[in-house]
Amino acid sequence: MDKQKVSKTSPAVGQRLILCGIVLVVGIVGMLVLAGMKAPPAESELQERPLPVEVQTVSEEDVPVTIRGYGQVKTLNTVRITPEVSGRIVAVHPRLEEGEVIPSGELLFRVDDRDYRASLDEAHATVQQLENTVIRLEKELAIYRQRLKTLERSRDLARDEYERLKQLFEEDRVGTRSGMDNAERAANSAADQASQMAQAVTLYPVQIKEAEHHLAAARARMDHARTQLERCMVYAPFTGRIKQVAVELDQYVSPGATGLTLADDSVLEIQVPLDSRDVREWLVFKRRVGNDATAWFDGLKHVDCKIRWTEAMDEGYWQGRLARIVGFEQQTRTLTIAVRVDSAAAQSHATGNLPLVEGMFCQVDIPGRILRGVYRVPRWAVSYDQKLFVVRDQRLKTVAVNVARIQGEEALLSGGVNPGDQVIVTRLVAPLENSLLEITEIPS
Questions:
Q1: What pLDDT, on a 0 to 100 scale, did the predictor assign at position 190?
Q2: Which residues of 385-405 are buried (b: 16+ CB within 10 A; e: fewer)?
């Protein structure tokens, strides 16, 4: 039974295989016939598409180096006005408010001065009393000196009278013993009076000197009392802006307590920290010799600086002047320099209607030495690994360069390019070396 089934299915499978082969051969033959009937495509020439770039022709030049830093504007002089006497505030300036500008010499506030005025009157009376004492002693000294002369004359006369009577009594037996004794007593009394007066005359200069010392001390106390009275009136030492107010009418104040803070806006200063390497390489110092030379940053050249407010960088600048080296920070290896701006320059309205005022955070450009024989290119044209794209025979070439300094948006090159080279300033991302270029020249 199984053998009959196998014999019946084998011819059917062979027929199917033959039919499939015939269809495949017919398809291949038809494809070849159709392919032979098709005309070949026209050949086109392959052209290279140029890369559009902007270029800048470089030339060797001497470029002044600019050191850039940032700092906050401050007033050069800010003074804390404090009362020097204690008492109650009885008067204040009508515009004693923060931000007001008070002219020099105007009264800021006044302390109750009645006790100090009484102390001055008492000291003045003491001085007058001691002055009269000195005058009285000097007059008494003059009188006593005259009396001393009289007493000395009386003493000499009484002694002569005693000697005459003694001689008469002892040699000529003229007179009496009692008369001679009375003459001796009168001579001794006159001598004693003259001696007492001489002693008084001797002591009077000492008394006058003591009185003069007392008078000097009294005058010092009077001057102190006058000074204390004057300190009750507190005036503006200069034309300044009030930064802080801590006194009110009827407030009791004590010496040393902060009354107000006054800022002098006539001279402003910006302290700018700079990299010590930039300062060493580019700032100009005049070497000083002699006994007045010090172990500090001496002989700094004072140059004009450009100051721009960071909130209005494109609206102009103010002009300041490099003043001094403030200090060296060991941890950060930075040098802090001070740039001063006077009131005329600060009010030049470089940024619209605003003057340069305390509190503004500014960019400061400080001119330094001249970097000679360098090439100026845009900063972005140089890659992080100091390579540059240039044009060689209308094609892109990559060259290694030596960047002497990055200054703002410019890179100053000291090697790697030659005068007249066309530097590609278009920002390119991984361009192919030797690419054909479509060049647009832009001015340097």
A1: 83
A2: eeebbbbeeeebbeeebebbb
Cα angle 4, 7, 9 (rounded to 5 degrees) comes to 110
Q: Which helix (H) or strand (E) holds 88?
A: strand 87-92
Taking the CB of residue 374, how many other CB atoms lie within 10 A of it?
24
51-57/437-441 β-pairing: parallel
Please list the rounded mean pLDDT of every run of 10 residues in the chain (444 residues).
49 74 78 71 71 93 92 94 94 94 94 95 95 92 88 84 76 73 83 86 89 94 95 94 92 90 94 92 78 74 92 88 92 93 84 85 93 93 92 93 90 92 91 91 83
Dmax (CA) of the chain = 221
How many residues does the structure list for the chain?
444
Distances (CA, A) of 73 to 102, 151, 362, 363: 21, 85, 7, 10
pLDDT for position 3: 45
Identify the pLDDT of residue 6. 46
Give dist(CA 441, CA 420) in Å, integer: 12
For the beta carbon of residue 20, count every other beta carbon within 10 angstroms. 9
Query: What is the enclosing helix (H) or strand (E) of 9?
Result: helix 2-37
| Triad 215, 221, 223: Cα angle to 5° | 100
pLDDT score, position 183: 79
Contacts 24+ apart (CB under 8 A), 131-140: 131/215, 133/211, 133/214, 133/215, 134/208, 134/211, 134/212, 134/215, 137/204, 137/207, 137/208, 137/211, 138/208, 140/204
| DSSP-assigned states of every residue in 160-195 | HHHHHHHHIIIII--S-HHHHHHHHHHHHHHHHHHH
Strand partners, 423: 56, 390
Distance of CA 412 to the CA centre of its chain: 32
3-state secondary structure of 68: strand
- State the pLDDT at residue 198: 87
